[in-house]
Amino acid sequence: MSPPTSFRSLYASSSTRTPISPQIRIIPLLNSCKRPYGLSFSTSSSLPSSSSNLFFSSSRKQSLSIKVQALAAETEQPKWWEKKAGPNMIDITSTEQFLNALKDAGDRLVIVDFYGTWCGSCRAMFPKLCKTAEEHPEILFLKINFDENKSLCKSLNVKVLPYFHLYRGSDGQVDSFSCSLAKFKKLRDAIERHNVGISSDHSSSVSEQIEDSTSSL
């Protein structure tokens, strides 16, 4: 059966036209275009993780540096028992040094502080003791570490800490007592009692007493 007359011209014209080129396959093309971008995105997506690691690494180094600096500053500072109020406060490290200090003091009042680095009461009272030493430059303050001078402390019958001995010239030992921050007035009262009436006669009676006690150990 032949086509109707109305379609013959259309059919004839269509048959003479250049055929349409085959359909371009767009999907593979898009996929091929996406691959490089996909790789690029994958690479860029890994950057935040790398940057984050660098950031935290830098933060850790900075924190470690701060801690090291703080530790160095702490080690450079003297311990609480190493601080001195002035030239009238001396650390005693041996019996010989102690005896020489008493001899050289003449008729000055000498206050001996027996302490322990582990003693909480000693540490709490120490700032006030330093202040008292600054207020009384005429008094000689001797500090004796109990753990480093056990034989000397034993010879002086020191059994509790903190403990104080007071010496003055030929009078020898004039007072001794245990004291704490709450009872610091006891030391102030002792200073008022014994820091008067300079003796004109100086002897080595105190040294002889200590030497006798240490030689018997």
Automatic annotation (TrEMBL):
Entries under InterPro entries matching the protein: Thioredoxin-like_sf, Thioredoxin_CS, Thioredoxin_domain
GO cellular component, one term: chloroplast stroma
GO molecular function: oxidoreductase activity, acting on a sulfur group of donors, disulfide as acceptor
Entry keywords, A to Z: Disulfide bond, Electron transport, Redox-active center, Transport
Pfam families according to UniProt: Thioredoxin
Span of domain Thioredoxin: 62-196
A single BP term in Gene Ontology: regulation of photosynthesis
Domain of life from the UniProt record: Eukaryota
Family statement: Belongs to the thioredoxin family.
Protein name, UniProt field: Thioredoxin domain-containing protein
Organism for this UniProt entry: Brassica oleracea var. oleracea
